[in-house]
Design brief:
Layout: E1 2-7, H1 18-34, E2 39-42, H2 57-67, E3 72-78, H3 85-98, E4 103-107, H4 113-118, H5 126-142, E5 146-149, E6 154-158, E7 171-175, H6 180-189, E8 192-195, H7 202-218, E9 228-236, H8 240-262, H9 279-284, H10 288-293, E10 298-300, H11 302-316, E11 320-324, H12 332-351
Parallel strand pairs: 1-2, 1-11, 2-3, 3-4, 4-7, 7-8, 8-9, 9-10, 9-11
Antiparallel strand pairs: 5-6
Keywords: Monooxygenase, Oxidoreductase
GO molecular function, one term: monooxygenase activity
Pfam families: Bac_luciferase (PF00296)
Length: about 350
């Protein structure tokens, strides 16, 4: 198993100035490399405390690239619907070169109605727009004199500069939330997968993984390339009571800012997002103690988290785990402690594949 840090901010100006947030996040990214973590990841969101301090993952990861030498850089995920593919492919190719090939590109459809409204885009078009943009980026990276005649974009012939450092292009990961068909398509296309298991029942996640891995194998892609990333809120302390109490507080803070971000789903319906109208009620009913019992959060002492991860590996296989150590806005020193405890007392158990 591999492990990394996922920067999912859940703060606004009244909680922490943006300059302070970025200073702390970059220091944590450097620490992640020093402690032997495998990747640094960040999201793309707008306007709300739920991710709003990260409107451009590429900018943040470029700063991380300048401060590190080894660790992978992962967009988790960029939203192609909000950026023209010529611009997006070029920005990502720059980052791939700046980092000397450490980039993995996660693409996502987005799911917040307010974001689509602000960009004046129809949510009903999000799936075909996503597919077209992703394919356009692939061609721009891999080919020269590209001519594109799609439903949403037309351009060419153009040859993207700079060319990607990795050839034909960086590893692609596709974000999937609750839609099994998205997992199947990612497998057929030979891409990796980004999942958030906390929002679904274990059996649903296993179903999605089975569909993904079966589609990947049947399409004849390279064995071992079916990479799966899973993100978990993480809080560690050597005192179990403290870990559970603080982990619960930060989880509840995260839920409260998410409720605000998804509120528009209370009045919105979209054929491209079947079932999302239930998301407001689902988040409102979130129960930390149940999530802890179901191994949907990595909270506890190092020994407890080792056992949780062993169970997760039994359920889902050797997936890549992204630790959300800043969600809920813990103090910087608490995030440092979580990372150090994980590196020193948890990570070695899974490096040896015991």
């Amino acid at each position: 198993m591999e492990f990394g840090i996922n920067f999912f901010p859940t703060v606004g100006p009244d909680d922490k100035p943006a300059g302070t947030y970025f200073d702390e996040a970059l220091r944590l990214a450097e620490l992640a490399e020093d402690l032997g973590f495998d990747h640094v990841k960040t999201v793309e969101h707008y306007f709300f405390k739920y991710g709003g301090y990260s409107p451009d993952p590429v900018t943040f990861l470029a700063a991380v690239a300048a401060r590190t030498r080894r660790i992978k850089l992962v967009t988790g995920a960029v939203i192609p619907a909000f950026t023209h593919p010529l611009k997006l492919a070029g920005k990502l190719a720059m980052l791939d070169n700046i980092s000397k090939g450490r980039l993995q590109v996660g693409f996502g459809r987005a799911f917040l109605p307010d974001e689509f409204d602000a960009f004046e885009l129809s949510m009903d078009e999000s799936r075909p727009r996503f597919a077209e943009s992703l394919r356009a980026c692939q061609r721009l990276w891999a080919e020269e004199n590209v001519v594109w005649e799609g439903d949403f974009y037309r351009f060419g012939p153009v040859t993207l500069l700079p060319r990607p450092y990795q050839r034909p292009h960086p590893r692609i990961l596709v974000a999937a939330a609750i839609t099994p068909s998205s997992c199947e398509q990612a497998g057929r296309d030979g891409h990796g997968l980004l999942l958030v298991p906390s929002i679904s029942k274990r059996e649903k996640v296993q179903e999605m993984l089975t569909l993904y891995r079966k589609a990947y194998a049947e399409a004849g892609h390279e064995p071992g390339g079916d990479e799966v990333h899973m993100s978990y809120n993480c809080y560690l302390s050597e005192d179990a009571g403290e870990a559970h109490a603080q982990g619960k507080e930060y989880s509840q803070r995260t839920n409260s800012v998410m409720v605000d971000a998804v509120a528009a789903w209370g009045q919105r319906r979209s054929e491209g997002y079947e079932g999302y109208e239930k998301i407001v009620d689902r988040i409102a009913k979130a129960d930390f103690d149940r999530s802890l019992a179901e191994n949907k959060v990595l909270v506890g002492t190092p020994a407890e988290v080792v056992e949780r991860l062993r169970t997760i590996r039994e359920w889902f296989g050797d997936v890549t785990i992204s630790l959300q150590v800043i969600s809920g806005n813990p103090a910087f020193e608490e995030s440092v402690r979580t990372m150090r405890l994980f590196s020193e007392q948890v990570l070695p158990h899974f490096r040896d594949q015991d």
